[in-house]
Amino acid sequence: MRLKIVLRTDKPHAFTQDYNEALTALIYRLITDSDKTFGEELHSKGYRQLGKKRFNFFTYSRLMTENKEWLDKYIPSGNIVWYFSSLIDDITIHFAKGLQRQKYLQIYQFKPVLREISIIKDAPNFAKGAIFTTLSPVVMTLRVEDGYTKFLKPEMMITKLKTNLIQKYYTAFNAVPYNLNLQIQFLDFTDMSIKYKNSTIHSYRAHIAMTGSAELIRIAYECGLGCKNSQGFGMLGLEM
């Protein structure tokens, strides 16, 4: 389930740091405001299969203009659009309930007014594949020697992206997708570095073509492509 959130500010604002960390904290706080136990367990445990890899099954976009132009540290006056998506309906419902109680959202020192929350219709049928534009940049990592994390470039991350989607599907449904055949192609990309807590995350804004397994494409659309989705990475929108 996917939400479109419209905010408004009458004054421009300049962030002194990347805002992902503040948005992630805001999401967990609002989910917890709706259901304390659910929110705390989502934040501390997430969803696991056989006690292994953890997923939180939600993602969100960059802050944007109404024309979907990305807003980074400088936010002009006017309307701001923000998208949220989750594979798990309860996550979206609790987030929406938490939002409905707010007159404005606090993102560090920035306090835009909450104007509108709307539900975007269910995910389309991906039987013929789709071309996507990233609504937040895609990131994929590889753990190497001594616990060091390597950030992969698009041409090196394809296999890991497929494996990650299969792991998400299995964790969500306790089953393997009927069709495991999936092709992912980066049509173009631009690198983007975002600081999150004490790390610099190397990610990519891109147009991406996906064909093959409609089940796995839906997973990517609903809860994000790649890793660090709940930190504001990997949200996809259909290229129109």
Summarize the structure.
It is built from five helices and 16 strands. It is α+β, with helices and mostly antiparallel strands and 240 residues long. The longest helix is centred in the C-terminal third of the chain and has 20 residues.
Describe the SSE topology.
Elements lengths: L1 E8 L3 E2 L5 H15 L1 H9 L2 E2 L5 E2 L2 E3 L2 E2 L5 E2 L2 E2 L2 E9 L2 H12 L12 E8 L9 E5 L6 E3 L5 E3 L2 H20 L8 E15 L2 E14 L1 H10 L12 E3 L2
Antiparallel strand pairs: 1-9, 1-10, 2-8, 3-4, 5-9, 6-7, 11-15, 11-16, 12-13, 14-15
Helix pairs in contact: 1-2, 1-3, 4-5
Describe the protein:
It is a single chain. The chain is 28% helix and 35% strand. With 240 residues, it is of the alpha+beta class. The strands form six sheets. It has a four-stranded antiparallel beta sheet with strand order 5-9-1-10, with helices on both faces. Strand 3 and strand 4 (54-55) form a beta hairpin. Helix 1 (20-34) packs antiparallel against helix 2, helix 1 crosses helix 3 and helix 4 (154-173) packs across helix 5. The mean pLDDT is 93.
Summarize the helix and strand pattern as letters.
Answer: EEHHEEEEEEEHEEEEHEEHE
**Domain module count:** 2
Q: Could you list the spans in which at least 5 consecutive residues all have pLDDT below 50?
A: none
Termini distance? 20 Å
Radius of gyration computed on alpha carbons: 17 Å
**Tally of helical segments:** 5
Rough outline: globular
Strand content: 25-35%
The secondary structure category is: alpha+beta
Biggest beta-sheet profile: 4 strands, antiparallel
Number of strands: 16
The second-level CATH architecture of the largest domain is 2-Layer Sandwich
CATH topology heading of the largest domain: Alpha-Beta Plaits
Quick one: CATH class of the largest domain?
Alpha Beta
Rounded mean pLDDT is 93
**Widest sheet: strand order?**
5-9-1-10
Assign a percent range to the helix content.
Answer: 25-40%
